[in-house]
Structure formats: C-alpha cells, structure tokens
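Bug #77: duplicate submission created two jobs. Keeping one. Sequence:
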Amino acid sequence: MCWLEGLLQAYPLATGLSTGTVSRRCPLCPGFESLSSVGVFHIRYFKTSAAHRDEVVTVNTPPFSESITEGDVRWEKAVGDSVKEDEVVCEIETDKTSLQVPSPAAGVITELLVPDGGRVEAGNPLFKLQKGAAAAASVPAAEAPAAAAAPTPAAIPVAMPAVPPVPTQAAQAKPVSAVKPSAARAEPAAVAHGARTESRVKMNRMRLRIAQRLKEAQQTCAMLTTFNEIDMSNIQEMRKLHKDAFLKRHNIKLGFMSAFVKASAHALMDQPSVNGVIDDTTKEIVYRDYVDISVAVATPKGLVVPVIRNVETMNFADIEKTINGLGEKARNNLLAVEDMDGGTFTISNGGVFGSMFGTPIINPPQSAILGMHGIFDRPVAIGGKVEIRPMMYVALTYDHRLVDGREAVTFLRKIKSVVEDPRVLLLDM
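Kept job's structure:
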C-alpha cells in the first residue's frame, strides 16, 4: 500500500482529502498503476464565513469629561488608509486637551463623516471602517508570491527549492546627487529674499480657550505682582552633593522644581488666603486645607497646567516623580482632563527658556501664581562685601481682592527662606 493511500484511509477528515476511482495514476508512487483503489485524491475546502471580517462599522465620538461638551476633529488618516487595531485615526481638540480616537479593529477607512476641523459632540458619528480589509494590504510583498503559490498535496514530498543564483556582478551604485527625492518629501520652494509673504493658521480650540481664560483673569481679578530674589547657592550645593545618591535611591534626577513646589506648599499652608478662592456666585471665600499645585508645561499646541495633588504630604522624590510623569504625558499628548482639573495654586517656570524677569497672569479660578525665572550670576552684598552669587528673581501675582500685600510679601519671603535653606522644612519654621 502506498503511504499516501494509508494516510487517506487513516485520516481522511484530518487531512481534508478523500479517495476515489477517477484515475489509475498516483504521481507519488514509483509504479503509477499500483494505487488502483485510490486514484486521484480530491481536496475538501473548509470555508468560514467572512461576513464578520468584512463588516463596515461606524465609529462614534467617545464621551468627554463633564466639563467638556464639544471638540474639533483633526484627522490623522484619510479614506482608503489601512489601519491596525488601536491605531489613532483622529484627534479631537477640546478646550483643555486633545482626545485620541483609535480604530476599534484592523481594517480600511471607507468614509470620513466629519470634515477636518469640524465640530463634534459626544456620540456623533466620526468615520466608517471596513473590518478585516487591511489584512491583505498588511501582507509583505515578499510573502505574497509564496502565499499565492501554495504547494498542492501532490507536491509535498518534493525537494527544497533551489537557492537563487548569486549575481556575478554587484548592482551599479548611483551617486547621491543622482538620486531624485520623492514628491512626498520634496522641500517647499525657497522664498525669494525680501519677499513680503503671509500665512494664516486657524487657532485651535486649546489656544482659543487659553486666550479667553487669560482675558477673563485680567477682567475679573484685581491683579498685583510682588517680587523678590533668591540666592540659589545652597540649593545648588545640596543638589550637587546628593544628586547621585538621590538618583540611585529613587531612580529619578533631583531638580530645582521640587524645592519650589515643596516651598510653595509650605508657604500656602502658612498663608491660607493665597491658597483660597473667591466664590463669586455665593460671595464667599473658600479656604482649603490641602494643596494642589498646577505646574505650567509648554506644548506645541499651547500651555497646559497638569496638577500635582496633595503636595503638602509629599517629599522631594514624590514631587519629582509626579512632575516627570505629567511632563511625559504632556509631551506625548496623553494628558486627560482629569489631570488638569482643580489646582489651588500655579507655578510657571519661565527660567527653562532663559527668562530673567516677568509678571505671570493668574490661572482662574485660582488667586495667585508664582513665576520662576532664570538663574544668573549677580553681584550681591554678603556680610558687607560684594560677592558673585547665582540669583533668581521670583514674582508672585495675586488677586488683591482676597490677598493683601502683607500676606503676599510674607508668602514670597517664606518661599525664599525654604529654597535658600531647605533645613527650614525640617524645623517647621
């Protein structure tokens, strides 16, 4: 008995083959006439319905946070584009952040139901997706011929395919200057020297909302700014002395921001009016026994202020880890609205851009904001002598309706004392 005949008789269903008597030839046997009872084998095709794979679904706008009702759509994909499961198809820009909309499954986008820049609300249809259609497009070109030329059962025992011949001559290399760039990567035409051109770019919702809030702050708050300067010598020395051990112990770098955040929390607990807010509806002052500090972070889309919560209970390591995590989310456009809601006080660090001096604007509905600036060597009087010290100007802008000058100056001097000598925190002074 031929080995193929035995296989067919033993496992007819498993192999998907059946026997018959259509022909007396077995191409796999040395004697073609020896497999009289088998003849030609037939292939049983097992099919599964592809309806669920080619289904066209409509993807709707996901729900927003309670404080957000609508947003503008910015498309990352176009009609006909293949997408993988969870690949971002569009972003919805809201007043506070951007919400990414991923594809629910692999497939091809068949229709965009909202124009680029169009306004949507939660539940509105966004686009149509044909599931499974992207699978064929995702097969590498090198694998397509192999799939198309799948061996038949009669060809299973044949030898391995021959190795492709090695070219006797290396392909002719082209000089870089001879390679023409593709149209997609073509550089824009250079603007003639002295040309007076203009371009217009629509303001995104986040930028519009920032502009609106800043203008509201100017119209609502009686803003006043007070200044002071901080000698950064001690904090720089502390950082230099302990940065390696801090990194080894907490797996994060020790920066200056944690010192100012902790100093602000210490000063806010000492001066509760700076941590409070006026409720214009009820005409009441709301005092908080907790400290949630918003840290301003610049992103390509605008200024965002993620919140570090319960700073009064944190140490330097906790603050550095939280700031690093929020900054990473902001750079990757992953901040959620919940990350920016609330906040009782704001710190803006213009020093990272080299700012020497400035007056920050209050972040409503808060009552005060601290502005940090660059560290520069300046001559200062120390013990009756002039010395060069690394100095930073700091500014506190506050709502004079709630915070008096005495509280504002005391608050800023408290920050100065903590940053210049962090031992003040240990002594609770």
